[in-house]
């Protein structure tokens, strides 16, 4: 029994992680069963109530009419106070006997329903978002297990669950699964909206969805089975898998180009500049990274740096910024502060970001001039980052009051803040001395989470919470949106700050030529905080998935009339819908 696979602590943890969604499913099933029972019970009560309505006598109806008028009566303002107007400035008397919501949670503004896209396009967008959330939960569950492995390195001895296989499963799934699906799905909304025309082909959109899913699923299976593209970070999927992914992107790129070409508007709005450029860049990036001509020796290292940074900056960052240029003005109900700043940020990011890949290999065998160019370009990235950040924040001018009553704008604000801080931290990390301290430590892990999570993910969450209610007509519970926001933000801070502090001390130990094992011992408490922060982030994703379910769930509650006005309205509707048998 000691040799049983279930004797491995890693297997036990894995089983526990698998049981969590199973238990959650059981809870949901119980809740759904009770909800169905409650619905049937209410329908029965409603049936009995309707039978009573049919037997209402004229005297009873007259009594209800009289009571309705009494209930609608409002006492004149000066009836009791004379010439002094009534005032309840502290809100002490208002709804004193009714508790409709938790009083210590501020009221958040609701959305304005806008049914301006076809149901077919709405369905495609919801499927993209739905699959993105599935891959987010799957990918971050793997990440949660990896975080546990840092504080329990002997958690398992199963090859499919080894750190070397699961780590690329986590990164690639949140890259090509969560973020890419969400971005493409949201783009299918923005491209036709700012072009003021229907999307060229819904069928191509569905083909893209299928191909991207096939790529992520097959890539995950290959990685766990040990089939990979060697050690290139974020480039672990083998080329046939990425060819499928690229084919899906190419279909949507063509779809978007034709849609923009047929646009009704004269100008091409800046969002479409970013979105289409990002889709062109990701295809170029994948072709460059997987063509075998330069995949040997030092050239392969240079290509790896190019691929890794262009994937983040010219695919994820570029496309998400394009979405921000649409959703932020739309959410604030005012135009973007400066179209010119948007174009400045667009071209300077293309100029500088495409040159910075080699700053990951400072003090390597790469030519010194190439390392210097990468550092200079990293400093040049200050221009698009400052231009973009200023553009977004200045758009808030005169509208900051909206943040207080919005459950979506906090996600925008945090995304913009991390856009500035995370990008600037990347510039600083490219300097030779800081690179000497931080490179090859967990600091780069913290930095990648500041950008891919703090910027990309927070922005995508804000966009999703903005869009989905407008196409489904249903809002998420505002309390659970707040829970999602704070768990994700506090968890991210625990995760990144602890790793940055520990990695700085770790790098200094290395520079002092201390034994490597000493740095491992040093990092133990920081890895614990990493696991705590990661767990908070992981839980927030489950809350996000619940919120998405509430936004797309079509079930409506059975409402039993209680007030005289509701009773009379129910009687009127019943009378209008009475069945009259034919002879």
TrEMBL record:
UniProt keyword list: Electron transport, Membrane, Respiratory chain, Transmembrane, Transmembrane helix, Transport
State a GO cellular component annotated for this protein: membrane
Protein's UniProt name? Cytochrome oxidase subunit I
**Species lineage, top-down?**
Bacteria, Pseudomonadati, Bacteroidota, Flavobacteriia, Flavobacteriales
- Which GO molecular function terms does the record list? cytochrome-c oxidase activity; heme binding
Q: Please report the stretch or stretches of sequence annotated as the Cytochrome oxidase subunit I profile domain.
A: 124-583
Q: Which residues form a coiled coil?
A: none
| Superkingdom of this protein's organism | Bacteria
Q: Which residues cross the membrane?
A: 12-35, 124-148, 173-192, 204-227, 239-261, 273-294, 306-328, 340-362, 368-394, 406-426, 446-467, 479-501, 527-549
Q: Where is the signal peptide?
A: none
Q: Does the keyword Transmembrane helix apply?
A: yes
Q: Does the keyword Transmembrane helix apply?
A: yes
Biological processes per GO annotation: aerobic respiration; electron transport coupled proton transport; respiratory electron transport chain
């Amino acid at each position: 029994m000691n040799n049983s696979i279930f004797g491995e602590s890693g297997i036990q943890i894995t089983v526990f992680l698998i049981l969590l969604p199973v238990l959650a499913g059981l809870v949901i099933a119980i809740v759904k069963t009770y909800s169905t029972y409650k619905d049937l019970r209410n329908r029965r009560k409603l049936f009995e109530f309707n039978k009573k309505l049919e037997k209402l006598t004229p005297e009873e109806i007259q009594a209800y009419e009289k009571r309705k008028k009494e209930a609608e009566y409002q006492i004149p303002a000066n009836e009791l106070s004379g010439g002094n107007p009534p005032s309840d400035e502290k809100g002490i008397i208002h709804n004193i006997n009714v508790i409709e919501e938790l009083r210590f949670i501020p009221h958040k503004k609701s959305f304005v329903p806008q049914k301006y896209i076809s149901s077919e396009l709405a369905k495609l967008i919801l499927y993209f978002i739905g699959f993105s959330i599935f891959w987010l939960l799957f990918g971050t569950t793997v990440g949660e297990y990896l975080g546990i492995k840092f504080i329990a390195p002997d958690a398992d001895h199963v090859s499919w669950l080894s750190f070397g296989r699961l780590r690329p499963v986590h990164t690639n799934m949140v890259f090509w699964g969560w973020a890419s699906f969400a971005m493409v799905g949201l783009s299918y909304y923005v491209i036709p909206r700012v072009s003021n025309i229907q999307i060229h082909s819904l069928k191509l959109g569905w083909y893209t969805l299928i191909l991207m899913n096939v790529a992520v699923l097959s890539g995950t299976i290959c990685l766990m089975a040990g089939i990979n593209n060697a050690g290139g970070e974020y480039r672990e999927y083998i080329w046939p898998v990425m060819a499928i992914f690229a084919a899906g992107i190419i279909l949507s790129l063509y779809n978007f180009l034709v849609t923009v070409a047929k646009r009704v508007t004269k100008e091409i709005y800046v969002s479409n500049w970013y979105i289409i450029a990002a889709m062109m860049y990701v295809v170029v990036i994948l072709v460059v990274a997987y063509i075998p001509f330069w995949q040997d020796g030092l050239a392969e290292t240079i290509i790896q740096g190019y691929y890794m940074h262009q994937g983040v900056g010219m695919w994820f960052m570029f496309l998400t910024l394009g979405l921000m240029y649409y959703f932020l003005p739309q959410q604030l109900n005012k135009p973007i502060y400066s179209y010119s700043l948007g174009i400045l940020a667009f071209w300077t990011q293309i100029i500088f970001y495409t040159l910075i890949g080699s700053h990951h290999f400072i003090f390597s065998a790469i030519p010194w001039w190439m390392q210097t160019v990468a550092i200079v370009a990293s400093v040049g990235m200050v221009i698009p980052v400052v231009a973009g950040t200023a553009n977004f924040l200045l758009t808030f001018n005169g509208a900051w009051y909206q943040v207080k009553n919005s459950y979506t704008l906090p996600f925008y604000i945090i995304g913009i803040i991390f856009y500035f801080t995370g990008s600037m931290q990347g510039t600083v990390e490219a300097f030779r001395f800081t690179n000497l301290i931080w490179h090859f430590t967990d600091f780069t892990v913290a930095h990648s989470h500041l950008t891919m999570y703090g910027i990309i993910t927070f922005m995508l969450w804000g966009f999703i919470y903005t869009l989905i209610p407008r196409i489904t007509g249903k809002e998420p519970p505002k309390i659970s949106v707040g829970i999602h926001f704070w768990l994700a933000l506090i968890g991210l801070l625990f995760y990144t700050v602890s790793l940055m502090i520990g990695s700085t001390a770790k790098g200094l130990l290395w520079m002092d030529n201390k034994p490597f094992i000493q740095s491992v011992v040093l990092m133990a408490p920081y890895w614990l905080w990493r696991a705590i922060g990661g767990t908070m982030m992981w839980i927030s994703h489950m809350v996000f998935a619940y919120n998405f379910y509430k936004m797309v769930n079509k079930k409506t509650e059975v409402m039993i009339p209680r007030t005289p006005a509701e009773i009379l309205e129910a009687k009127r509707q019943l009378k209008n819908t009475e069945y009259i048998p034919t002879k």
